[in-house]
Amino acid sequence: MFQGASSLSLDAKGRLSVPTRHRDALSESAGSQLTLTKHPHGCLMLFPRPEWEKFRERIAALPMSAQWWKRIFLGNAMDVEMDGAGRVLISPELRQAAGLTKDAILLGMGNHFELWDKASYEAQEAEAMQGEMPDVFKDFSF
Fold it and tell me: Could you tell me if 62 and 70 are in contact, meaning their C-beta atoms sit under 8 angstroms apart?
């Protein structure tokens, strides 16, 4: 289970250094094989390959009425490999889709990560914090 936030910087070639605390788990669970794709909230999802394969099967099984979402998730998916230095190359297309330039936030989301442009994430998080909590949290104990 991946959790926590990491502030990162993309290098000039569009590579992201995976935080060391996640590298071993990704190497063990996925042999450094990862998949990136678009998320509807404007970030990217980064999956260890075995988790991606489970997600991909669920998306592929959706009915024809979800065809555009299949295109968004599957049509934009890119397989990548973490190099020996723990870096992942993010394609120009996916960087553009998520508005990634230099400063980024990597969020552990359980079985995958979300990769956000730092300014975009901070703005959306602030907006969410100003709003009402969803009903699902009404009986939740903190």
Answer: yes
Q: Characterize 15-35 residue by residue with b for buried, 16 or more Cβ atoms within 10 angstroms of its Cβ, and e for exposed.
A: bbbbbeebeeebeeebebbbb
Is 115:100 a contact under the CB 8 Å cutoff? yes
pLDDT tens digits, 39-50 = 999 999 999 999
**What are the tens digits of pLDDT across the range 66-125?**
999 999 999 999 999 999 999 999 999 999 999 999 999 999 999 999 999 999 999 999
How many Å apart are CA 132 and CA 6, to the nearest integer? 26
- Neighbour tally for 100: CB within 10 Å: 22
138 by Cβ neighbours in 10 Å (0-12 / 13-18 / 19+) ranks as exposed
What residue spans define the domains of the chain?
Answer: 2-130
Tell me how far apart the alpha carbons of residues 26 and 17 are, in angstroms, rounded to a whole number.
13
Q: Is 2-130 CATH 3.40.1550.20?
A: yes
What is the pTM assigned to this prediction? 0.93
